[in-house]
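Input:
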Amino acid sequence: MPKRVMDKDKKLTVKEASICLDNRGELLKSLLGQFFTDLVAQIGASIDEVTLTVKPEKLLQTCKILKEDPTFSFNYLRCLSIVDYISRMEIVYHIYSMENLHKMVIKTSVTEDSPKVPSVTSIWPASNWFEREGHDLFGVQFIGHPDLSPLLLYEGFEGYPGRKSYPFHDYDEW
Amino acid sequence: MFTDQNLDSVDMMVNMGPQHPSTHGVFRMILWVDGERIIKVEPHIGYLHRGSEKLCEAELYPQIVSLFDRMDYLSNFNNELVYCMAVEKLMELQIPERAEYIRIIMCELNRITSHLMFYGAYGLDAGAITPVLYAFKERERIQSLFEAVSGARMMHNYINIGGVREDLPEDFAKRLDNELDQVKKGIDECDQLLSKSELFLARTKGVGQISGADALDLGMSGPNLRASGILDDIRVTEPYSLYQQFSFGIPVGSEGDCWDRYYVRIAEMRESIKIIEQAIKIIERGPVKTDSTKFLIRPPKGEVYVRAENPRGDFGVYLISDGSTKPYRVKVRAPSFSTLQALPHLLINSYLADSVVILGSIDIVLGEVDR
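Output:
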């Protein structure tokens, strides 16, 4: 009988998703390039969105420029997500400009031991609950947030269930 | 002798929920009132937190569709669509045209059922019992269509990665035509029944106002944002699927009060019908899913953020793939979650009796707030 090829035995090549920015994305990328020459910021892209990677210390300064400068005027925070890459945590801001119809992503990384990042509630009040959720599930400290009490979990819950290190209970045999 | 000093009022705390019929699920808020005025609001969520995002990391890509059904349980098709679009964008998968049209028809029908549900429940919130009966009569017509197409009334699992699960039934176009005529009449009937009722106007006009700038700042989206006078509809500003082929209007309010938020939804149902009527005319026979879709999907390494206009607003999925059969991280941006943040802003300085009407007007679904 032929041996069944298991999924894990197969040799796999992992492909990378290709980047294809549209015209508006290219325009935004060049605008960002002119603006953020002095800041420690990397401009990149993921599929169809321009990404800007900044250090946590420069985050507030960058966000302020992006919201208040009329070239960008990113006035709408769509999503704030936290991704656990085991050695580091990445905080991802998806922002959108209603006037210029631009969309972009800001990313900043912190270590898992001391995940401290400035809160952007003073710039985008919509980030309030997203940050509370991030504090709840990932234990990220948002410095300057008005109230970081538990949002989704109950008072006294131990551990950070969003992290990769949190045990994921697999199905047990009954 | 009474003086101003000994007539001071004492702030009172009123608890509402989590088991309360007007909170639309398990939502709890604590209100501090000074007489009849609300002075402080503390919303509590999380009673329905199931950890869906974490659960997604343990399931195969096609299995996750059924988890998305359970997020916003009043607009299942729309949720499925966003997730499937995210995976397809990552895989650069082109799906057949017929499948795209079926998806649009289903999503727009779902928008109507969702708004009808809002209409009925909002009538109840404002103290009118009759509207819910009319709304459910019309909703049932569309629900029966859903049942014929997907086999389920709520958790459809119909839109799959690479297309839709099955083709439409043979007599679908005829049935849809029939039912849509009825629904159109039904919506007009509902509109006449409640929208211009003097009692309803007194309860909703000028209540819970929010300006466009504040609504944007607090992260409101969809009909709630448009009621405040901001024209933003992802179907138009960033067209996805085949939405650029259709002509339809976007109803926009001006005051940003409860009545505007209510009426924007009534007007939106009529626009949805226009889209469905156009779609059913141009849909052609053909395959409904790509041949290449297999159960073990390995999207390339990368990340994607896809957004779409759900009945409740801007629904986004942030999907990160590490090249394996399971996603590395799925983050859901639920419109109700962001909208609910604005609740304290809407409630403060309004009357306690209006709190139910204001909460009802933003149309939340706790399934997607807590995820």
